[in-house]
Amino acid sequence: MRRREFMTLLCGSALYPLTARAQQSRIRRIGYLDYGAGILPSGGFAPFHDNYRRKPFLEGLRESGWVEGQNVTIDRRFAAGQADRLPALAAELVALNVDALLAAATPAAKAAQNATKRIPIVMADPGDAVHLGFVSSLARPGGNITGVTSLAPEVAAKRIALLKEAFPKTARVAVLWNSAIPPAELALNELRAAAPMLGIDLQFVEVTGPPGFADAFAAITRDSADGLFVFPDPLTFGNRESIVGFANKNSIPAMFGAREFVEVGGLMSYGSDYPAMFRRAGNYVGRILNGESPAELPIEQPTKFELIINLKTARAFGFDIAPTLLARTDEVIE
What we know:
The protein has 13 helices and twelve strands. Mean pLDDT is 86; it is low at 1-20. It has helices at 20-24, 47-63, 86-95, 106-115, 155-166, 183-198, 213-222, 234-238, 240-249, 259-262, 274-289, 311-316, 323-326; strands at residues 28-34, 72-78, 100-104, 121-124, 145-148, 172-177, 201-206, 227-230, 254-256, 268-271, 306-310, 331-333. α3 (86-95) crosses α4 and α5 (155-166) packs parallel to α6 (183-198). The chain is of the alpha/beta class. The chain has two domains: 20-150 and 273-296, Rossmann fold; 155-271 and 306-333, Rossmann fold, CATH 3.40.50.2300.
């Protein structure tokens, strides 16, 4: 597989050796607060969640000299996609007096922010961190919060433009989104602005939990959408196979926000590297344990987005993708 890049907004050191300081210090404690599902009833980790978040996060910690079970322990709390559980879970981690806190996705970051002004917080995928009030600036966050984001709102307009380019006859696009993720509102505004110029009508279909997907799929079918755009968030990631299956079964060309959807049969995606984001978040947590201040660590943003097309899916379900777009695709899955 080709190497994918994830660059910082401002230049900074990416790798840290296993330092004597990290090896000899007391065992540190990290709180891991996750809005999404990913932990099994048996106590183990779901394979997708493990590869998409947990393993990259642990790799990032090792880059800074911290190894779970050796010089650091991790207390994990999962909200299973239920945002109303997050404040209590964040309070539990704060009560444990963790040395640093990783908050995965915007609702978790907001809960962590409300729970403590003292413990350093590293956000993973917080959306527009300045607009949402997490930090005062990307370059110098200030306070106890920093992090790594995967999304700029204007990318949503780019995604729908690519869908239109691939399928020029597309006229009505269903937009599947989760209202529990505040950055989605910003992206929706970008879509509303771009749609008239592309000759597209938008059908906004809100889903707030796994039980809502059946109704969402019924609404998309009822309104005869000839295109589908799916925001990447913990809820849609966790239900990606059913979303992809619905789109393909009904021969609806779909654009996704992350390659993980394409890897399970989705047609196309345009986005950044999510595992790389969690690896960098782990690196940031480790750097904070090594003594750096979150106030001085810039919010990292992706500078490279990749277009990925699954030609196997295209052939199987009769999707005829414009050749001009295929020529510019970063990766083709066959």
